[in-house]
């Protein structure tokens, strides 16, 4: 048994309340399935926004930027924003992130074998 398999088994035992999800590279293939192996395993929380899976801790900066940009574009037409406008957008982005439905998960990143 390799070290990643042992790590995954231990995390499953230690955190039975978490969903197990797998992340894999999106690559075109002629086959429905391909052989892969765990590359990285993390404990995190995830949500889906605009058909994209976002991780609360692993993607926090990118998610914040994505949501802040959406809010800014929806509420303002002239850029760059003033310092006060930026602060308002940042506060709104933080609120929206906290309101998202977060699911606890054991996240397994898969690499092709």
Could you describe the 3D structure shown?
This protein has 113 residues and is an alpha+beta fold. It has helices at residues 3-14, 60-75, 83-99, and strands at residues 19-23, 36-49, 52-55, 103-112. The longest helix has 17 residues, at 83-99.
Write the layout of secondary structure elements.
Elements: H1 3-14, E1 19-23, E2 36-49, E3 52-55, H2 60-75, H3 83-99, E4 103-112
Parallel strand pairs: 1-4
Antiparallel strand pairs: 2-3, 2-4
Helix pairs in contact: 2-3
Provide keyphrases for this structure.
113 residues, alpha+beta, four-stranded mixed beta sheet, 3 helices, 4 strands
Strand content: 25-35%
List the total number of helices. 3
SSE pattern: HEEEHHE
Distance from N terminus to C terminus (CA atoms, Å) equals 16 Å
Which strand order do you get reading across the main beta sheet? 1-4-2-3
Number of domains: 1
Determine the fraction of residues in helical runs and give it as a percent range.
25-40%
Poorly predicted residue ranges: none
Category from helices, strands and their pairing:
alpha+beta
Q: Could you give a short account of the major beta sheet?
A: 4 strands, mixed
Instruction: Round the Cα radius of gyration to an integer and report it.
Output: 18 Å
Number of strands: 4
Shape: elongated
Summed over residues and divided by their number, the pLDDT gives a mean of: 93
Q: Outline of this structure?
A:
40% of the residues lie in helices and 29% in strands. With 113 residues, the protein is of the alpha+beta class.
């Amino acid at each position: 048994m390799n070290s990643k398999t042992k790590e995954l088994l231990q995390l499953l035992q230690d955190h039975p309340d978490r969903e197990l999800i797998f992340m894999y590279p999106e690559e075109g293939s002629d086959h429905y399935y391909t052989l892969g192996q765990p590359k990285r395993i993390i404990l995190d929380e995830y949500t889906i926004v605009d058909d994209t899976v976002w991780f609360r801790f692993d993607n926090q900066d990118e998610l914040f930027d994505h949501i802040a940009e959406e809010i800014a574009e929806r509420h303002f037409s002239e850029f760059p924003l003033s310092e006060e406008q930026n602060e308002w957008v940042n506060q709104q982005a933080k609120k929206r992130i906290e309101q998202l439905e977060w699911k606890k998960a054991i996240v397994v990143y898969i690499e092709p074998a």
